[in-house]
Amino acid sequence: MSESFTRFDAANYLKTPEDMAAYLDACFEEDAGDGLLIRTALNDIARAQGMTQVARNAGLGRESLYKALSSTGNPEFATIMKVMKALGLKLHATAI
């Protein structure tokens, strides 16, 4: 009997805005400081909502959005803020 595995994709589990916000918050907590985990989370959330629509809502080209949120991307902070707004998320700070 052979087993079949599928690759895990977080985008398949991000169904509600609350799921997306909790996922991004967890990634903010765990990011190593290089932003890779945060870019990955934003990429997953954007794919869950539809990259084309998110890019349109953010005022970016779809290819530019893919590049900015890739593992090698280095988006400007303004781009991150546009993407978060397009995703219906906002950035906030709390004291630790």
From TrEMBL:
InterPro entries: HI1420 (IPR014057), Lambda_DNA-bd_dom_sf (IPR010982). GO terms for molecular function: DNA binding. It comes from the Bacteria. PANTHER family: SSL7038 PROTEIN. Pfam families: dnstrm_HI1420 (PF21716). This is Putative addiction module antidote protein.
